[in-house]
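Suppose you are handed only two things: the residues of a chain and a line of SMILES describing zinc ion. What would the bound structure be? This form records exactly that question and the answer produced for it, so the two can be stored side by side and reused later without any lookup.

QUESTION INPUTS
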Amino acid sequence: MIQMVKNKGARVIIEKNKFFNTTSINLFIPNNERNINKNGISHFLEHLILDLISKKFQDEILGARTTRLYTNYYLNCFTPSAEPIIEKFLRFIFATKSIPGYYQRLFCREQFLYTKKNIIAEIKEITDNPHRVLQTDFIAFVGDGKIEFLPSIGSIRTLENLKVKEVENYMEEGYNLKNACLVIFTNGSFTSIKNTIIQTTNNLLEYQVRKEPLKNNRLSKAPSLERYYLPEGFPFCPNDTKINERVLLINKDTEICYINVGFKISSTMPSTLNFSEAYVLAALLVDYIIEAISSGGFYLIKPLVYLFENEGIIGCNLGLGENELSLALEKIKEVSNYLKDKDRIIDKLPMAKRKCKMALLHEAEDLYKRAVFLFRNNSNITFESKAKEIDEVEADIIENKASYLINRENLYIGALGKIKSINPPIMKFYHYF
Ligand SMILES: [Zn+2]
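ANSWER OUTPUT
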C-alpha cells in the first residue's frame, strides 16, 4: 500500500515494508540545468553535506548520489520507529541555519578545500576505470541520451574554478522542501510517520531561505517525469568516440578490450511487453553467458546484466582478452541464439524465475532503486504483484520476446579499446543480425 502525504508543498510517499523491520528514507532534490551543463555544483554540495553530517548518523546507513535529474540522499534506519531520525535528517538538509555553527562550517574555506580534494579523487577514479567509462557511455548510447539517472559528477577543470559562494547560492536556491520529494519505505506506523512529517515540515518552513519552489522543477511533474536529454559534450564521452547506427566504439589505450551488448526493449516493442518478462529474459541471458564462459572464448569482468525498466534496456558487460575478439563475438552470437531455443528455455526457466524473485527482494534493500521505482510509479504496484507476474511468465512468451529482441533493430553493441583492433570484428558482428 503506497500513500502520499502532502504538507506545505512537501511531498512524501510512504510505502509499507513487510520484508524488513527497518525504515528507508530517500530524499530527491532536483538539479537545475545550469549545474548540469556547467559545473557539477550539486555533486559538490552533496559531498559537502555528507562530509559534515555522516558522524551524526552513525547508527544508520547514510549515502548520496547525484544524477542528471536530481541529488538523492538516502538513509537506512534499523528500526521501524524512525520518526526522530527523519526529523533530524530533514533539519540537516533543509534548515541548515537552525543548527548552531553548522551553516558556517558548511561554507568555510577549509571544509571547501577538503571536499574538493575528495571529489577530484573520485572523478579520477571513475574516468580511469575503462569498464565504467564504457558502461556509462553505452547506457547513454542505447538510451538515445535520455537516461536521467546517469551520474553527474562534474569535471576536474570546472571543479578547480568553483567558488564557495556559488555552492552557497546553489543551496539557497534549490534546497527547499517544496522542490523535493521524500520516499519512505517502512515497517513502522503510517499515522505516526505522517504526523511527524506534518509537524517537521511546519517547523522547517520558517528556517528555509527560499519560500517558493524553483520554476523549472522537473521533479514536480512526477510521476510522469520528463526525460532529460544529455547536454553536448557529455563528460565521460571522449572526443574521438565514433558512433555508428548500432555500434559505439571508444578509442582508449587499455590492456584488454571491453564490450557491452544490449537489447533495447521498449520503444520499438509492442505495448503488450511486460517488464517482468524482460526481467526473466535477462536472467536467462545471464545463465547462458555463464554457461558459455565455461566453454571459453570470453570472460566477464562482472557477470552483470542490467535491466532499466523505464529505459527499456537489457544490457550485459563482457570483458574480452585482446586477441580473442572474433572468437568472443562468435560466442555472443551463440549465446543470443540460445534465447530462441525453446527446450533450453523450458529447462532453465524455473531457476531464472527464482533468481528474479530473489532479486526483487534484494531490490527492497536497495533504497535508491526502490525509491526511483516508487517515485515513478506512484501506483498500486507492489512486490507481491511483481512476484506474481514473474511466476506467470511462460516459455512461449520468452521464446517470442527473445526472437523479437535478437534482431538487428534492437541489438546494440559498444566496445572500448584501440579502435584499430576492435573495428573489423565489431562490424562483422553487426552483420550477423
Ligand atoms: Zn561523489
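WHAT STANDS OUT: The pocket of zinc ion is lined by residues 43, 47, 122, 153 (CB under 6 Å). The radius of gyration is 23 Å.
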